[in-house]
Amino acid sequence: MSFMAPGQVVWFEIGTREASTAEKFYGELLGWNFEVDPDSSVDGRRYIRIMAPEAPWPMGAISESGSGGEQINVSVFSEDVSADVDRLCEAGATVLVPATQVADVTWFAVLADPQGNPFSLFSRTSNEDLKDRAKATEEHFEQSSYAPSQGSFAWFEIGTTDADATRAFYSQAFGWRFERDETAGGKPYYNVFTGNQWPSGGMYDHGAQGTDYVMPSFLSGDVAAQSKSAENLGAVIEFGPDSNPDGLVYSRIVDPNGNRFGLFSMPTQS
């Protein structure tokens, strides 16, 4: 299955009133580069593409609006955003931003799952020139999924206080499959398969007294050191660094604007 097939997580967005704070934090922490979308600077809003170090294509964006709040979400590819909004509302989602066309570039919508976690729907443009760019971006994402670079968006995680309800919603919404991760050392962690043969995300069952979220996770060369750096830059370490028996190391962090994200490093190959 193509990485850009419906139901795939293909993007992330940081919504903020002041982009410079996010740019400074993530630029210093993960070495991200930023470029403003020239078509977006209207009505006091800016859309700023995010690129991992040395990456040729963006992996996400900062959406700056003086009237908006702080929010981070992952984006799921859709063939028909309007139809999917209607379908997902019937499955229990609520609409935060209705299906909206941005110039001739794309359609998007922002919804919340039944646990209140925001996520967005995204469709690529019909413009032929931009289709070529989308195809090149898809190829980059597919390569990154095999060998992601440091600082790149390489995983997403759902934290839930109701694992059965979360599993039921995302299975119905996008056909996602959940399998218990036997390498997690007994933690109630599930790999999420979004259509490909390898997982692209995970679900952590925190139990009724835990935390609900959907967050992007970024590849780190040294989770402990970068977690400490994040703390020095004004973030809060919510969990970790912790490790699995197979050597995977991860942290869950809340940035200075209150947005949650993860850092992880892959197990060491023996």
From TrEMBL:
Entries under InterPro entries matching the protein: Anthracycline_SecMetBiosynth, Glyas_Bleomycin-R_OHBP_Dase, Glyas_Fos-R_dOase_dom, Glyoxalase_6, VOC_core
Cited CDD domains: SgaA_N_like (cd07247)
UniProt domain VOC: residue ranges: 8-124, 152-266
One Pfam family matching this protein: Glyoxalase
Alphabetical list of PROSITE patterns matching this protein: VOC (PS51819)
PANTHER family, per database record: GB|AAF24581.1, GLYOXALASE-RELATED
Name under which the protein is recorded: VOC family protein
Organism listed in the record: Nocardia uniformis
